[in-house]
Amino acid sequence: MTHDDERSRRGHGASSRRGLLTGAGRIALAALATPLLIPRIAFARGGGGGSQDVLVNIFLRGGMDGLTLCPPYGDANLYSARPSLAVGAPGSGSLAALDLDGYFGLAPGARGLLKPFQDGKLALVHASGSPDPSRSHFDAMALVEHGTPQQPIGTTSDGWLGRHLRNTPPLGNGPLRGLSVDWSIPLSCVGGPLMAAANDPANQPFPGDALSAGRRRRRLESMFRNAHGPMHDGALNGLSMLDVLATVDFKHYVPANGAVYPGSPFGQGLLRIATLIKAGVGLEVFTLDIDGWDTHIDMGPVNGVLHTMLTDLCDSLEAFYLDLTSQMHGIVVTVMSEFGRRVAENASGGTDHGHGNCMIVMGGHIAGGQVLTSNWPGLDPTKLDDGDLAITIDYRDILSEILVNRLSEPNIDSVFPNYTPTFRGITT
Q: What phi and psi values does residue 384 have, to the nearest 5 degrees?
């Protein structure tokens, strides 16, 4: 295992923590030299007025295996390459794939996607991903989140979603535009206006002794009100976040349509996001991550580790879909990973770092009920990209179409610099 692999196994900290240790969060904390302002803040830059869908952007850190999530069971090469790990064709047993279109299926753990797929509100985008050839978790995540694959790391310091937020006016007049349900904002949101982060939005009181909270808060506001740039924005955004979250009754929230969210951090994170969307507090962008997809050993696609992770992911997405069915016309959810896994299984019952993968896209104006491909490359050994599923749909194509058609993005060239996207018909 490489040092980079081990860093990824410890979580997405390498990339996410960089967002925490730069910008306003670090500056404000250093200025305070006290834990009064918790490290859940980002920097802001302003905005105007307008309307757009709410975006929920989910990152699966570690390299999720798209060939298990959505197996091309119609390709016999899958079973040659993975004699012990491939999900069986529909009808081959209790742990077989769920059929989608006669060629692609869903892993048993991904059963939760079936309802929104059949309702035409969820699509899977296969053989998709970042064209950069890197198999380093750290580099691949950074390039994907900066939106600059195949360009040198450091080409830009902000993220694709941060640039989008700078380009577009806010939906309302609230003090925040976006929230990362994590300890810090991800690289994709760096540079975005009015962003904040909260690991548990339902439990974010002003830190420290409640008796002195008012006095300490006034002191913080006084210290940073006349500051400039990141210190001013970061500190006041952190306080604004606490104010916004304090207006929401998380404790008494009841999901609609019998939706049951898993008790996992991811399931509960989506529950908090649903609560905030229904509360109408003006947040436009949410981000949420799941770590641990680096399944080199004992992958367990139908009855082990990967099966458990897919079940958590997909059951949570199903609960979110059911809960927000009546609001789904104004919501879009995107799910992706930094890269996929190799087609062939390894000698340790797992798969190593690959290339092409499978995205999940869900929403009221998503052209769902399909596995979207473009010149599907197949798994014939002669068609692979150095042993990996080839990429025929750039992830930026999917995100660009969503940003332009559903989030009112006026300047997609600045969101993904030096790239001309091809719209694939993912939106309606």
A: -80, 160
What Å distances lie between residue 411 and 50, 160, 321, 414, 427, CA to CA? 15, 12, 30, 6, 18
CA dihedral sign of residues 262, 266, 270, 272: positive
Which range of residues forms the domain containing residue 163?
Answer: 3-415
* Residue 421 within a domain: no
Q: What is the pLDDT of residues 321-380, one digit of tens each?
A: 999 999 999 999 999 999 999 999 999 999 999 999 999 999 999 999 999 999 999 999
Answer with the residue of higher pLDDT: 229 or 35.
Answer: 229
Give backbone dihedrals phi and psi of 214, rounded to 5 degrees, phi first.
-60, -45
Residue 80 to residues 19, 73, 85, 135, 379, Cα–Cα distance (Å): 42, 11, 10, 24, 10
Distance CA 73, CA 88 (A): 7
Q: Are the beta carbons of 296 and 348 closer than 8 angstroms?
A: yes
Is residue 425 in some structural domain? no
Q: Is residue 422 part of a domain?
A: no
The C-alpha angle with vertex 112 and arms to 404 and 257, in degrees rounded to 5, equals 85
- pTM for the full predicted model: 0.87
- Report how many domains make up the chain: 1
The 10 Å CB-count burial string (b at 16+, else e) for 147-173 is: bbbeeeeeebebbbbbbbbbbbbbbee
- Tokens standing for residue 18: 């960089």
**Could you please report the per-residue DSSP string of 52-121?**
--EEEEEEETTT--HHHHS--TT-THHHHH-TTTSPPPTTS-TTPPEESSSS-EE-GGGGGGHHHHHTT-
Encoded tokens for 342: 């190799």
pLDDT at residue 225 greater than cutoff 90: no
Residue 428 lies in a domain: no
Residue-wise pLDDT for 191-222, tens only, equals 999 999 999 999 988 777 878 877 777 777 77
pLDDT digits (tens, 9 = 90+) for 14-66: 333 333 333 333 333 333 322 223 222 222 222 233 358 999 999 999 999 99
The single residue listed with the structure tokens 């030299």 is: 33
